Amino acid sequence: MRRLIRLGGRKRLTLAGLIKTILAVLALYYFGGEFLGERGRDKRPDRDVAGSARVVDGDTLELSGEKLRLLGIDAPEMAQTCEAQGRPVACGKLAAEHLVQLIGSRPLDCAVEGKDRYGRGLARCRAEGRDIAETMTRDGWALSDRRYSDGRYHGAEAAARAGRRGIWTMKFEDPAEWRARRREASF
After folding, report:
1. What is the pTM of this model?
2. Would you call 57 helix, strand, or coil by DSSP?
């Protein structure tokens, strides 16, 4: 005997059909992110890279001959200046120098999760278990990149802002806005 379940209007669904629908919804919920291209916090990396790194700028490294962009943060560009006490400060260079000091000679372990539009690997890197991007943000030398961080570094940015650390001691332009303004000026 088939049991029919009335769903409001005229449609009827068998108990077996209802169970199949629920299982399909649960499967889509559980596995759907991978099929739909969603990138969650716990997504498995495409690959891992480890070794000594060379700092390119405040959010970019070169590791094993490949340029890697630290995922989830945006640091001032090398040519970017900020203002402190009415004077220009090379805050982009200071951010890069801070990253050099942070890494030191320690090897990095990086999980690469895709590429950006410039072909750089997007990576979450650790030195001795410490998240480099989070430390750069907490120390005030990078912003949480609202487009790609999934909120991961928002707390670190808020702590840096409240503690007036790094670029938060200066007047500065958001690095993304600074780059956009430079692109417009070059046309």
Report:
1. 0.74
2. strand
